[in-house]
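S.,

Sequence below, as promised.
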Amino acid sequence: MAIDNLKESFGRQKRIAEEISSFYEDLKNSRNEEERRMISSQINFLKNSLKKTGADVIDATERVSVAKPLGSFQPVSKIFTQPAKGIIPEVKEKTTALEKLTLKRMKQKEVKVIKKKEKKPNLYVKLASSLFYNRAMSLINKGKFYSLRRDLIKANLEFVPANYVSVIFLTTILSFFASIFVVAFFLFFSIIASPPFIVAAETSLGTRFLQIFWIIFAISVGVFLFAYFYPSMEKKSLESKINNELPFATIHMSSISNSMIEPSKIFTIIISTGEYPNLEKEFTKLLNEVNVYGYDLVSALRDMAFNSPSRKLADLYNGLATTVTSGGDLPEFFDKRAQSLLFEHRLEQEKHSRAAETFMDIYISVVIAAPMILMLLLMMMRVSGLGISLSTSMITIVMVLSVSLLNILFLAFLHLKQPEGG
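The prediction came back faster than expected:
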């Protein structure tokens, strides 16, 4: 048993040392004074945890026993079935018919085997890493893509930074070749609004190329920028979801803390409810740092605050760590924090409702009234012969496409601005 404890302590020391090394790399690449201070605080906590684990190693080493194992001895069953004369009578057990039937059913009962599903690596990511991993690592070691690394951690994306950078490079190159095919198509053909929609280009190749060559750079740059900022967008989306669950989860935590249980058990109970799916992932990461990596609760709270996608959740972690360290009143802390978070949540809901009213007025003006006025102007220009003269079918296609595009843009914008569960 002592050897198992010693092995576990060594493994914990190794993990803590790797975390300290990783934080030192982040400290070198940090450009913000506040972030540098938080990283230094994390390193100090990890050093204290390393010292504590070292003391556990010494204690476990002292308890290791190398005594000679005992020899073979007579089974207990023989002691009772072959007693000495006049001391213990032989005990014979009689199995009833009901017991036999129960044993028979237990033997016939099928044993359910739970098969663990192994998640295989994505072939596209594997290909990208095989081609660009070394280049991506060299750029990351030079301090490039620092904000991207932080966004990947906070957004809970299942990517190593070097692998994600490799995916960006491969995707950009593939989009470059795809844009060449697009340019080659438009070099010889044009798209018109009336049937047959695709016709041969009438201008010379040189003039046509000068008109469309920008598509190559537009597609490639657009794909690169989207892939680069995608983790940031995911982080903001996750932050919005967490902020909408946090006030109600904090109220729940306030009621649980009144029972005066150990603070880490509060997060376990919140996870078991299943009512807060986004916070459940964050709290699971917190408990893993305590139960798997061996951090104390305060160190785990500080570390999770540094890597949290939500500023409000980070403030909750830091406040809870300070309360636990100073021996403050946990129920009072959760109650005050729940009140402030609920007040902010109500303000956000009111702001979104007012914004929805404004968007409704804009929608009526832009999507309903403006196309009707535009259609009347086009019809008047066609009848009078002034300006651009379009056919009736062309005007119809233009109006249908413009209204459809405006509706899609408004739906996308409202979907981004709508609060989770609103």
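The chain is about 75% helix and 0% strand.

Coffee later?
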